[in-house]
Specification:
It comes from Rhodococcus spongiicola. This protein is mainly β. 0% of the residues lie in helices and 38% in strands. The radius of gyration is 12 Å and the shape is globular.
């Protein structure tokens, strides 16, 4: 059985996640502009707003056995 879970950035994490035109998914520090490419993670758009995590529809979520190493990630249980 897979131990992978969906993860979203916490709304108060100080980091944002964006998809670049070349297809890379990049985590960016909002205070320092530090950037890290998320290689090896599967991703999807969130389908519906999620009040529990503060995640908006169309935000990006990533799949992994643990959260990515940059930013404050929250396990995502919604769709």
């Amino acid at each position: 059985m897979s131990k992978e879970k969906w993860w979203v950035l916490g709304s108060d994490s100080g980091w944002s996640l964006e998809e670049r035109p070349n297809g890379d998914h990049v985590v960016i520090s909002q205070s320092t502009a530090e950037e890290h490419v998320l290689a090896g993670y599967q991703w999807m758009h969130v389908k519906h707003d999620d009040a529990e995590t503060g995640t908006h529809a169309h935000a990006l979520k990533v799949l992994g056995e643990g959260p990515p190493p940059f930013g404050k990630w929250t396990e995502f249980h919604g769709t």
